[in-house]
Write a structure and sequence with these properties.
Length: about 350
């Protein structure tokens, strides 16, 4: 448990039945601090997820929580008649004062969710079925939020997927060389600069704005332990207005790659076409009905673009001295950038085949 925070004291301020027993770190996220808290309710264990929102990344936590309140309420209404409705949507637990979030004396923002039982997440893709189910869950998530009433959701991280601005940030990091690392990253910088022209393709296409998740890794979908079905989409901090391609592209990046995001042996990293097919079929099974023809035509490209975008973000953070992503070894962000650039290369080779498959299924 993070020694800086008394998670037990925080957990007891939420309306969770029973007596607090313990709290342990939970999950593998890069940004927020998450804990699984256990309460004893007359001999019955009750679990809840307690999270500290990283307010250095998410600068306006009240606006973020307003988004989450609106989105979870809308989704809950959509699944109201589902026998599994309590497991289909994240459910916020209010504080004992009736709020959906808590600000402690140190200015930290906290929230609590009901624990989704009999389901789990996976950090690494193991089967095509998992890829299909996760993509189907994210497609369903977009589909159910397609009619979210006005007003427009808040941008929790402005310009999060504005690839040209991400590229401009990279160029600034190269010029500033704040951590003295530019000399050791010349090959990666050159790779990025050669592909600058692709950064504006989606934004220049005048595509319709959707409600999007914006962090569609496999481990942001709970899979039923018995059936393997994608039960619930989690980690809603970056749910905001965006393009459908942001979600699909990141699914391709994370589910169709053959190695870990930070793989050092680049020979192991490529895009698996069978996994891409599983992602495409799962996503289109739910989202295909509301996507326009123009949106479908750029889905295959979005995998390459979003992979390139995260690669330049990793490279930028490396050059800036690792100020955004959590790192666990020297040069970790550079390793991540190299792996993602390699994935981009393998997507470039398979681009036409990806486009043909989307055309057949879209």
């Amino acid at each position: 448990m993070n020694a800086r925070h008394d998670v037990g004291a925080v957990a007891q301020q939420f309306a969770i039945a029973g007596m607090f027993r313990s709290a342990e770190p939970y999950g593998s996220g890069h940004i927020n601090d998450s804990y699984c808290a256990v309460f004893d309710d007359a001999g019955r264990p009750v679990r809840a997820i307690i999270q500290r929102v990283n307010h250095h990344i998410f600068r306006n936590p009240p606006a973020l929580m307003e988004n989450i309140e609106r989105v979870t309420a809308h989704l809950a209404a959509k699944v109201a008649n589902d026998p599994e409705r309590e497991r289909r949507v994240l459910r916020l637990i209010p504080t004992r004062a009736g709020q959906t979030w808590l600000c402690d004396a140190e200015g930290n923002f906290w929230r609590a969710y009901r624990f989704i039982e009999r389901a789990q997440t996976y950090d690494a893709i193991e089967t095509g079925r998992q890829a299909y189910e996760a993509a189907k869950a994210f497609g369903r998530f977009q589909q159910m939020l397609a009619d979210l009433p006005a007003p427009r959701l808040h941008d929790t991280i402005p310009d999060f997927h504005h690839t040209p601005k991400r590229f401009a940030a990279l160029e600034h990091a190269i010029t500033a060389d704040a951590a003295g690392r530019v000399k050791g990253a010349q090959a990666e910088i050159g790779f990025a600069l050669e592909r600058k022209a692709m950064t504006g393709v989606l934004l220049d296409a005048a595509l319709p704005e959707r409600v999007t998740h914006n962090d569609t890794k496999l481990n942001n979908v709970m899979l039923d332990e018995a059936t393997g079905e994608g039960i619930c989409v989690v980690d809603l901090d970056t749910v905001m207005p965006g393009l459908a391609h942001y979600d699909f592209g990141d699914m391709v990046r994370t589910s169709a790659s053959t190695a870990a995001e930070d793989e050092r042996d680049l020979k192991r990293m490529e895009m698996s076409f069978p996994m891409f097919e599983a992602v495409a079929r799962g996503y289109l099974a739910e989202a295909g009905a509301f996507l326009t023809r123009e949106e479908r035509s750029l889905l295959a490209f979005s995998g390459r673009l979003i992979t390139f975008e995260i690669a330049i973000r990793f490279l930028t953070d490396h050059l800036n001295g690792d100020t955004y992503f959590k790192v666990h070894r020297e040069g970790h962000n550079l390793d991540r950038a190299r792996a993602q650039f390699r994935l981009v290369e393998t997507m470039e080779v398979q681009q036409r085949a990806m486009e043909r498959l989307i055309a057949e299924w879209g």
